[in-house]
Amino acid sequence: MQKTISIQEFLELAGRYPVVDVRSPAEFDHGHFPEACNIPLFSNEERAIVGTIFTRENPEKALKEGLKIVGPKMVSFVEMARNIARHNTLLLYCWRGGKRSHSLAWLFETAGMNVYVLEGGYRAYRRHLKASFCKPLPMIIVGGMTGSGKTEILYALQKRGEQIIDLEGLANHKGSVFGSLGQAKQPTTEQFENNLFLVWNRLNPHKTIWIEDESKAVGRVYIPDELFNQMKTAPLVDIALNRNYRIERLVRDYAGFNIEDLIVSVQKIERRLGGLNASRCIEAIRNKDFPKAADILLYYYDKTYRHAMSSHRREKIIQVDLTGNDPEINAGIILSKTRELQGDNA
Question: Which fold has domain 2-130?
């Protein structure tokens, strides 16, 4: 059975059945539905050949060339699809929901499988994603100076039944100049948006969502404008933690990395840190005096944070003083403070 379905039906069924992307490997690598498998109708080179014939000669000749390329691969396509299918069923998409997806859907249907084709293809999915990020949802932003443990607090909030979005986790980057250390390769911005939407689409729109305060760029990927605009106006919990506790956390989180990698990271902000401070910081790292290095770096990061806070135009900023490095305790303090203020404003 082959059936064309809407994006809403597609998203509902994607939790039950495997998703197959039939676009070329290059298209897939640039951005794809999370958890999708790639069965490319054409390789990157083959797609270029067919596309050139279509543009420079005519569609009929391009179709014939495509059939020549695909014919010998049909058996392997069916074998791959059988290995991926669940309950003999697949969801399938190409760029526009056109010839590529319907031709493979026909093949898999002929082989006895149930196939659902996404109407409008990947392009329809991306349009739906962008529109979804525009939908206002209740959120609270967790901000604070570097080393305050904001990510750990997010996960402590999640343990208490709160909804969170870990943007840094999705971006494979911790946000600072040291943020790539120990992280997997960053996705493309498009794939970051796709992975983010998977989380976003599962949220309860009637419950608060907690998100860490971030700049527009998280490493080399960018938060979608539609979501970032919401984040800029949402209530902000500005946590304050003693500098010594922050240094302690930074040493714990970063002292284990390769010394040369740490030094390269410092050199990236040498001009903003100041030549003398950068030299002192690098010397401290070489001497494995990590608390001193962290202390020097915090002068730069604290100044940057204060500047960012001064430019905030939020209606509500909730100041919360924390007493230590225990994320469970800190999550409790934050929840108590925000609920108290929400009660006062009820």
Answer: Oxidized Rhodanese; domain 1 (3.40.250)
